[in-house]
Each structure stands twice: as C-alpha cells, then as structure tokens.
Design brief:
Helix content is 53%, strand content 0%. The protein is an all-alpha fold.
C-alpha cells in the first residue's frame, strides 16, 4: 500500500487537485524521512504508510504556517486547537518506535 495525494489531502484539508504538486513534494519528503528511520528494521507496511502520512501532514502544516502561527481561514466562532508545528521526524518516530532497532553508539 502506498500513501496517495488524495489521502494526504483528506488528512490536511488541502485541495487534491489544486495543491497536487505541493502535496506530492510533501509525500516524497515524508517517504524519505520514514525510509531513513526504518533502515534495517522490519516494520508492517500499514505502520510505514501511517508514518508517511503523519510526517507529510506535518510538513504540509509547516508549509501553510511559515511564520509558526497557524492561519484560520474558516473561523466559525468555535475555538480550535493550535496544530503542532513540530519536526516531522517526531510524528513518524512515535508511530514507528515499537519496530525500530535501538541506536548504538
């Protein structure tokens, strides 16, 4: 199974057609992050895909809030939690941790 642009668009609220190029860039970068994290480890494919999706979503959110302050384009009067603009490695690592080999050295 591979993570698709449509899945990332659904996860982030992006437009899969208008934002396709940027979404693909985020997926490519997230795939590289997860591939590096899982090198030498056996991880279930579903967990790899979830880690890629989470890391790509974090990259997308960072892209949309360059100053570190999230934008709320559709505020409806209800308070919204601020999305985390953390390192995308963190999202992937948390998901993959049970299957990763411990670092030595």
């Amino acid at each position: 199974m591979t993570v698709t642009i449509q899945q990332l668009a659904t996860e982030t609220g992006a437009n899969a057609v208008q934002d396709a190029t940027r979404l693909q860039e985020q997926l490519t970068a997230a795939t590289e992050i997860v591939t590096r994290l899982t090198k030498g480890s056996t991880v279930p494919a579903a967990m790899v895909d979830r880690a890629i999706l989470e890391a790509a979503a974090d990259l997308w959110r960072r892209n949309k809030a360059r100053t570190g302050v999230p934008q709320f384009d559709s505020y409806d009067g209800n308070p919204e939690p601020l999305p985390s603009l953390r390192d995308p490695h963190t999202s992937a690592y948390i998901i993959l941790r049970p299957w990763l080999r411990p670092g030595i050295g």
